[in-house]
Amino acid sequence: MNLVQKAEHWGDTHHTMWLDVIRIALGVFIFIKGISFIGDTGPLQELMGAHFKYVPVFIIHYVAFAHLVGGILIACGLVTRMAVAFQLPVLFGAVFFVNITHGFDAINSELWLSILVLFLLIFYFIYGSGPLSVDEYMKTHIKHET
């Protein structure tokens, strides 16, 4: 077993229910953040244009799509690790390119929120979806016929 398989196995065998509640809340929060990006793209375009001259439209569409679809998938616990993998570049960008320009101060709550969400995403990337998830339901209730 390589390191990733060991981490996945450990995460699948050491999961508690309250971690699923946090995963569901994280997914709902990310989905709501995606809705807010779609509702008000002006500040996001301005912010992206300051850092990336030629790709702000692609980035805005990627962020919105990743948040909307990824948030639903994370909340449901369906292909959680893949959904988290699509979120990670967005959050790395939010922490290291966008929010750091505002500085590391206690007033910049968006930075601390982004760091918390990034930490949770990394945690669930390793830990997996858990027992209250569509993935677990499919593993236990749907048999593969060959």
What does this structure look like?
Belongs to the DoxX family. Helices cover 77% and strands 0% of the residues. The chain has 146 residues and is mainly α. Helix 3 crosses helix 4. The model has no long low-confidence stretch (mean pLDDT 80). The protein has one domain.
Number of domains: 1
Count of DSSP E strands?
0
Order of helices and strands: HHHHHHH
Q: Report the major sheet.
A: none
Shape: elongated
What amount of the residues lies in strands? under 5%
Number of helices: 7
Low-confidence stretches: none
Outline:
77% of the residues lie in helices and 0% in strands. It is built from seven helices and no strands. α5 (80-98) runs antiparallel to α6 (109-127).
What are the main properties of this structure?
146 residues, single chain, elongated
Chain-wise SSE layout:
Blueprint: H1 3-13, H2 17-39, H3 41-51, H4 56-76, H5 80-98, H6 109-127, H7 134-141
Helix pairs in contact: 2-4, 3-4, 4-5, 5-6
